[in-house]
Amino acid sequence: MVTTAPTRLVYQRPTTLSDTPNSYCPGCTHGVAHRLVAEVLDEMDVRGRTIGVAPVGCSVFAYNYFDFDFVEAAHGRAPAMATGIKRVLPDRIVFTYQGDGDMASIGMGEIMHAAGRGENITVIFINNAIYGMTGGQMAPTTLPGQKTTSSPTGRDVEVAGFPLHMAELLSNMEGSGYVVRRSLHDPKNIRLAKKAIHTAFEAQVRGLGFSMVELLSSCPTNWGLTPKDALTWIEERMVPVYPLGDYKVSPSLANLRF
Amino acid sequence: MAEAAIRAGVEAYFGYPITPQTELLEWMAARMPELGRTFLQAESEVAAINMVYGAACTGARVMSSSSSPGVSLMMEGISYIAGTELPVVLVDVVRGGPGLGNIAPSQGDYYQIVKGGGHGDYFPIVLAPSNVQEAIDLMVLSFDLAEKYRSLVFVMADGNVGQIMEPAELPPFQPLKTQFPEWSVRGAENREKHILSSIYIKPEDEEVTNYRLLERWHAIESNELRYKEYFLDDAEIVVIGFGTAGRVAFSAVRAARAQGIRVGLLRPITLRPFPSAQIAELSKTAKALLVVEMNSGQMLDDVQLAVAGRAPVDFYGRMGGMVPYQDEILAEIVRMAGEDIPLEGDPRRRWAQRVNYGRNGK
Description:
The complex is a heterodimer of chains A (258) and B (362). With 258 residues, chain A is of the alpha/beta class. In chain A, 36% of the residues lie in helices and 16% in strands. Chain A is built from ten helices and seven strands. The radius of gyration of chain A is 18 Å and the shape is globular. Chain A starts with 29 loop residues before the first helix and ends in a 9-residue tail after the last strand. Chain B is 42% helix and 17% strand. In chain B, helix 3 runs parallel beside helix 4 and helix 10 crosses helix 11. The relative contact order of chain B is 0.12.
């Protein structure tokens, strides 16, 4: 007599992540970040009232990879576009997904004022210290000395200035309810990142103002590293410059556990 | 104009202060919240237009307003809105320029607004009121046109229309929309997702979109042309002017009629679509045409294209925020009635030399 253990499903594609081949390079952590967002939205069961705002950059086609309503913003303007949607539909969950060039360079005005207003939106910020889509130019978050195609001898702070620390900056805005930095370089940190994303969306549901999760991410292609070495580079090079941690947590979120 | 938009059911307004349209923003700041609608002062015109962009994606009636330098800043978002095929109403209260210029009435944004202004292939509807009543009526119309054609609609007023006070009747209150278009992004409850984007990464797909925009534009051209004719039945001299220039020209035409000069006025209300066919028809019988503008002759180009050399065209303009007096236009009409205007040559250059590039004094 043959007996089989009952099957138990332990892993599947989140329903809010569409079954679409994506355009990301092998080893890029955009895929991880997308999946975390989708898992959280699944767990919150909010597909029908979530609206995403895609940026310009590698994740410009993010709207193809999620399965809920999405709009596509001009470069850097996603927080303004999200503001327009959220103000008209305040009971929807509105989030932007932006890279470092989009949010911290050309979109600096929009992000700072969205936070300053306490705009009740969530921002997923991918910091990979480089412009990915255009082929590896210097970003506002490029590390001092880091070689890119537009800083070929390494970022010279005398000429190109210093990296911008967005979590720290945005946490200083009175309108911010939840601002943290996490990393996607290993399973433990990925799990912590998911909890942070869940908390950020929960902050929005509770009307606690602006929420942002900065995710240190890899760009093996433009860093010229293997996927594995790129994750090590995050841990060894980026984390010391961009310390992980909670920069602003509204007191009413303090005891939340996911 | 603000109250007219409110009565037309505008649900959200995003704007940034700039003279001479700030009264519109201030009216919205007071009225929209008391009606439970959205007013937000953005950190810049760049942000304001992108807030409008987002809000328009929900299918709600939305608008912004600005003046020339602010509209320049909005041009990026305007192109995206056009590319995403969203109904949006924008008011440009035009001021003197280029650059910071001044806050006086001008029509110097004709090229920018009428020809598009932003990047890429698109066609905005452009309405040009010449008095307060018309500004009110066109505001209401603009929302209907925007939604009918999923189009950008500009109401291009000059600083004079934006600042003047005169009696006018406001429209009745329309209820806010409760039904939203099939394409709107409001959350994918019990349906497939909607994506609103101006990206068509494959040139083949972008071309399909460009053709769709063009076909829609041709329908607008066929259905939505608006202009006013005054004393044109027997006119030998045809004056063409819009907005405040058209209004002053009307007074000059009446004064010339009192002197026995057979002169009439065509006042375009839609600058785009433009009454080219009507002007072409007039050019077959007119002795000459006079274009009057508060710029250096921008609509003049479109009139000359319509006339196509069939009749002489002259131009008279004031620039820099200066408004022509009735007597200045009257003097042009009297001059044209008494002399032969050459068919050849450049009307803009003739005018500039006639007024000695402004050195003659006014």
